Amino acid sequence: MAKLIVADDHPLFRNALINAISNTFSTKATIETDSFESTCQALEQHPDTDLLLLDLHMPGNCGFLGLIQLRKNYPSLPIVVISASEELDVVKRVISFGASAYIPKSANPAQISEALKEVLAGELWVPASMQKALQEQASQDEDLDLAARVAQLTNQQYKVLYYLTEGWLNKQIAYDLNISEATVKAHITAIFRKLGCTNRTQVVIQAQRLTLEPPVNKALSGHEQD
């Protein structure tokens, strides 16, 4: 029996997923979270978690960035990504960035149960229809290098990076994180160094390589100078 965290911001899907799991898979406890921050808090409060089921689109997750951060902070925790996207490139990068499985939201309960059992046995799992195509595609070294650099960010620096991708000003970030603007600028400087960038626009462009959504115009214009 396993202790699970189910991280998804849609209550209806979260409940449906938990019901699907309970019908075919033995669990001793299931914790629900609806944002990246609450997921991190749950992991701190439940260090004995056996498995994390993660939605890439949760608030604060910012596509693959959250997965990379979780993989760094919890290197031995199996992470199963569940997403509505079934694009092969997304699946490939999820596995490359450290997930143990990729389950499309269209999966049936039997597939979900199979995936969870495989992961807990130490195996990787993706839908059978995708396995051959994934094996044929070469890994994206450039994205893997960027992922490694993102993994060097501290938790606070990751939060600042997320806000930068959302187009927030330094004073807005400082207020939300309850820190000074000088501290925000220090974090941004560290982010520049670790990601090999010289300005905010470059940081946002780099980060958008690891997100799922098209570039947001506000994140590329109207910024204050650092």
UniProtKB/TrEMBL annotation:
Q: Recite the UniProt keywords alphabetically.
A: DNA-binding, Phosphoprotein
Instruction: Tell me where on the tree of life, at the top rank, the source sits.
Output: Bacteria
Matching entries from InterPro entries are given as:
CheY-like_superfamily, EvgA-like, NreC/VraR/RcsB-like_REC, Sig_transdc_resp-reg_C-effctor, Sig_transdc_resp-reg_receiver, Tscrpt_reg_LuxR_C
Q: Which residues carry this modification: 4-aspartylphosphate?
A: 55
Q: Where is the HTH luxR-type domain?
A: 146-211
Q: Which Pfam families match?
A: GerE, Response_reg
Q: Which CDD domains match?
A: LuxR_C_like, REC_NarL-like
The Response regulatory domain extends over: 3-120
Q: Write down what this protein is called.
A: Response regulator transcription factor
Organism in which the protein naturally occurs? Alkalimonas cellulosilytica
- List the top taxonomic levels of the source: Bacteria, Pseudomonadati, Pseudomonadota, Gammaproteobacteria, Alkalimonas
